[in-house]
Design goal:
The chain has a two-stranded antiparallel ribbon with strand order 1-2. The protein is mainly alpha-helical. Helix 1 runs antiparallel to helix 8 and helix 9 runs parallel beside helix 11. The chain is built from eleven helices and two strands. It has one domain. About 70% of the residues lie in helices and about 5% in strands.
């Protein structure tokens, strides 16, 4: 029973990281119908920026804040300079552009920061917590990561539902041309969507890297699982991204704990295949509108 509890709680903790990546993908997909393959590389690069700040200032929180700001700026900059020229072109064009960005960003990280593995500090202790002398498989750092992602997801949901900015984002995602005719500056709205996606990616990078190492390809496997979570939940659903991330994290924790951790990525892809066979649009996808 203790082992089951440990696997469950640790799965929820890592699932929150997958959810953060999934949310960043959902934000971009809903606004531009672009699947950003470079999202993991963007997260890695902002984590390097946080590492530089922490190394020079000795302050984790300074690095944390700078990483989030860098994610906002990087997302907006890439949308303005690289993604926007691909808009209105065949969908494959934008996908190829994001693949090129993945290669470019990881290459730049290797040139600037080197290819060696670097440790990254955690916000709080990584020592496992105990309740009544029983280990529960998570640390204060895991609790912090889960709480931050939940708070960010809740803030995003409230923004989409109750603010004018969220309404504009939803309108631009639903029909860009109609939104433009209604007076919405869709260019700014789409830039904001990419900026927020960059922030969520940076958040995931800073939160997951203390349990791994920092190097130019460090976020590749996390991105694959975050993408899997987004597809499982439905690329149009922010709630689905969170549920898909947590569900995937728990399932992979059970599989890794009971079946062996060597094939965790394979287990994740197997979960993706099963969902695509049963419900191709994702578990929380809205029903398709009938066209007469």
């Amino acid at each position: 029973m203790q082992e089951f509890l440990e696997f469950t709680l640790s799965g929820i903790a890592i699932g929150m990281i997958y959810a953060a990546i999934a949310l960043s993908l959902v934000l971009i997909w809903r606004g531009t119908r672009v699947l950003n393959i470079s999202q993991g590389a963007m997260a890695m690069f902002t984590t390097y920026i946080a590492w530089v700040v922490i190394t020079r200032t000795g302050s984790y929180w300074a690095g944390f804040a700078v990483a989030l700001a860098a994610g906002l700026v990087l997302g907006a900059l890439l949308e303005r300079t690289v993604i926007r020229p691909a808009q209105g072109k065949p969908p494959l064009n934008a996908l190829i552009v994001t693949i090129g960005l993945l290669t470019l960003i990881e290459g730049l990280a290797g040139i600037i920061f080197g290819g060696q593995y670097r440790s990254f500090p955690a916000a709080f202790s990584v020592t496992g917590l105990k309740i009544g002398g029983v280990a529960i498989g998570v640390s204060w750092s895991d609790v912090f990561a889960a709480a931050v992602v939940l708070a960010a997801a809740a803030a995003l949901a409230l923004m989409f539902r109750y603010t004018a900015t969220g309404l504009k984002l939803r309108a631009a995602a639903l029909n860009t041309e109609v939104a433009r005719l209604l007076g919405i500056r869709t260019g700014r709205v789409l830039t904001l969507g990419w900026a927020l996606a960059g922030l969520f990616g940076a958040l995931a990078g800073v939160l997951v890297t203390p349990s791994t190492f920092l190097y130019p390809n460090s976020m590749d496997s996390i991105f694959v699982l975050g993408f899997t979570a987004a597809v499982i939940g439905g690329l149009d659903s922010a709630i689905g991204a969170v549920v898909g991330g947590v569900g995937l994290g728990v399932v992979l924790s059970y599989a890794g704990g009971y079946l062996g951790s060597d094939l965790v990525l394979l287990y994740g892809l197997a979960a993706l295949v099963v969902v695509l066979m049963v419900r191709p649009n994702g578990l929380f996808a809205a029903p398709a509108a009938r066209r007469v």
